[in-house]
Write a structure and sequence with these properties.
alpha/beta, two-stranded antiparallel sheet, single chain, 7-stranded parallel β-sheet
């Protein structure tokens, strides 16, 4: 059974170990890209929510391509040492580094391929100076350090203005209009990276992501937990996009094979525009609980059109309907969550 067929038949995720295996399963596009990719891979900000399974996916892709001697190196401060141990047990080298320490950044190993995942979002309100330093200043220093590398850098759909729900969402070529300092700092990151791509001829891809989900974290978990707790759900941000975290990571890794100067920009999310009301009602039916709401849906929302990425890499391996069902089942099992709200409902850009 192929990986795609296995996921299509998936009805239950047994436990955290099973979940991590699924989240790190490379797509065919990743394996094909890594089979022709020259050099090692370094992941900056590897200890975040998506980083560990992205690094393991890369390790598995190199192995599947018969390139077991290629190195995958994860860089982070590793304030939680369990992340470092988890990565090491899966064949990923680790390097402790505070990227604001420019001497430590300069000492990182030279590699042919870099995935940049670091940044600051949650807690940015009240720490605006640090947010701009992490999201704008450090990316410039990273580009200077790795000017001989291919770089794939995570960005966000928050660089766009809210778009009408009646349309498919913002395209990569649409005018940008970030709301709030977080979104503005992320646009700053893109502009800084584009500058160094153009002036130093660094091939890059910028990944504008809306919203990666898995069973422990994400917009679906937020909505499901509110239904379980019988808490009212704010409908002002009444629609959203979401994508299985493994599919988001797979696109980011496969994008190493299609970097450009100036940077290629890719919207990464699921193809469906999801209704907060309908998703909550779906969870309510699964849980046997009422869904309570407050307010009404605005005519616009933070929505991305992922058509260009879908044309390159194909449809996500798990669609929204399956993600909703798997999330409901996970919570009904009493399985753990990260207990980190996404604040996706914020319309003022304050996180």
């Amino acid at each position: 059974m192929t990986a795609q067929a296995s996921l299509a038949a998936l009805e239950r995720i047994r436990d955290v170990e099973h979940l991590d295996e699924l989240l790190s399963e490379p797509s065919a596009a990743v394996v094909e890209t890594f089979a022709r990719l020259e050099g090692d891979l370094l992941v900056l900000g590897v200890a975040g929510k998506m980083g560990p399974t992205l690094a393991w996916m890369a390790r598995r892709a190199f192995d599947a391509a018969g390139l077991r001697d290629r190195r995958v190196i994860g860089v982070a401060r590793f304030s939680d040492p369990e992340h470092e141990a988890w990565l090491g047990a899966r064949g990923i080298e680790t390097n402790r580094c505070d990227l604001l320490d420019l001497d430590a950044l300069a000492a990182l190993p030279e590699v042919a391929n870099v995935v940049s995942m670091f940044g600051m979002k949650f807690g940015s309100t009240g720490q605006e100076a640090r947010t701009w330093a992490m999201n704008c200043f450090v990316p410039g220093e990273v580009a200077r350090k790795f000017h001989r590398s291919r770089i794939v850098a995570f960005s966000t759909g928050n660089v766009y203005a809210l778009s009408p729900v009646s349309q498919a969402g913002s395209k990569e070529t649409d005018p940008l209009g970030p709301v709030g300092e977080y979104g503005m700092s992320c646009l700053g990151r893109e502009r800084i990276l584009e500058h160094f791509s153009r002036t130093l001829a660094i091939p890059m891809a910028l990944i504008r992501l809306n919203y990666a989900v898995e069973m422990r974290y994400g917009v679906l978990v937020d909505l499901a937990r509110r239904v379980l707790a019988e808490e009212p759900i704010d409908l002002a941000m009444g629609h959203f996009n979401a994508i299985w975290q493994a599919d988001a990571n797979a696109v980011a890794l496969a994008a190493l094979g299609c970097v450009e100067v100036p940077p290629r920009v890719l919207n990464i999310t699921g193809p469906e525009t999801l209704s907060v009301r309908r998703v909550a009602e779906r969870f309510a039916a699964r849980f046997g609980k009422p869904a309570a709401f407050r307010g009404a849906e605005a005519p616009d929302a933070l929505l991305n059109d992922p058509g260009a990425a879908l044309a390159l890499f194909g449809q996500p391996r798990l669609d929204a309907e399956r993600l909703i069902d798997l999330t409901a089942d996970w919570l009904l099992q009493g399985a753990p969550t990260l207990d980190k709200p996404t604040h996706f409902e914020a319309r003022d850009g304050r996180f």
